[in-house]
Amino acid sequence: MAQRFPGLEPTKVALDSPVHISQRYLASAYDSVASLVDVSYPALRAQRPAGRGRLTHAEHDLFRAAVVFAGAGVDSVLKQSLRSCIPIQVDRSEAARTKYIDFVVRHIQDGDGLSARQLAKLLVTATPEQTLRDAYIESLTGSSLQSQTQVTTSLAALGLQDNRQLFKDSQSLNALFKARNQIAHEMDMTSAGATGRGKRTRHERTVEAYTTMCHTGLNYCQRVLNALAVELADIA
Question: How does the average pLDDT of the chain come out, rounded?
């Protein structure tokens, strides 16, 4: 029987949950990766004269696409969670509000002192508090979210400091982030391949390595959404 892409942990996100949009992003990313693994890969492999052996260049490219989809899923799910939940959490979570205040201090600082100009620009806006919150969210979502440090920063901003296992397990995303960045920014070229030496010019991984890193990233996102859903259940 052909290998199937594993399912994710059961969702705890209700339709009226603040993280429902994030759950939809995750479902879309999962469906894309599962389709490549469960449908496109078997169809491509069936075109071989012999069905066994190492992955072909085309098959590697298919799994590279799955890695990119999974990385994009992690990025979009966590960013949408930040956009949806920070406006709520900074008012109800002491830990999330502490991180927000830390940002505000940095935002109006000039070295060791206060930036009078930055403060004046803030005060003349119609809604200074909303301006600060928008700036805070932009600081967390304005760049590609593709590192363990960015993940743990997001968890802290969301007020999930008590969920220590999520912080600890964030290191499991490093394989996905590394492969995604090699594929997206370096065309997955090896150092020897980039200089024209050696027969193998691109990084090669096993099917298990590809699927494990993709599933780990997407399932981690489900765990984050479940934790947020429980945290915010009383306001849904």
Answer: 92
Q: How many CB atoms lie within 10 A of CB 94?
A: 10
Cα angle, residue 23 at apex, residues 39 and 184 outer, rounded to 5°: 60
Rounded to 10°, the helix 57-92/148-157 angle is 30
- Say which residue, 200 or 191, is predicted with more confidence: 191
Cα(8)–Cα(219) distance, integer angstroms: 5
Q: In the 8-state DSSP scheme, what is residue 171?
A: G
Rounded CA separation 49/58 (Å): 15
The Cα-based distances of 43 to 51, 66, 219 in angstroms read: 11, 15, 26
CB 63 within 8 Å of CB 188? no
Residues 6 or more apart in contact with residue 147 via CB below 8 angstroms: 177
Q: How far apart are CA 120 and CA 66, in angstroms?
A: 48
Stated pTM of the model? 0.92
CB 75 within 8 A of CB 146: yes
- φ and ψ at 189, to 5 degrees? -75, 140
User: Any idea which residue has 């945290």 for tokens?
Assistant: 231
Q: How far is CA 24 from the centre of its chain?
A: 14
Burial 217-226, CB ≥16 within 10 A → b, else e: bbbbbbbbbb
Residue 81 contacts residue 158 (beta carbons within 8 Å): yes
Q: What is the pLDDT of residues 142-173, one digit of tens each?
A: 999 999 999 999 999 999 999 999 999 999 99
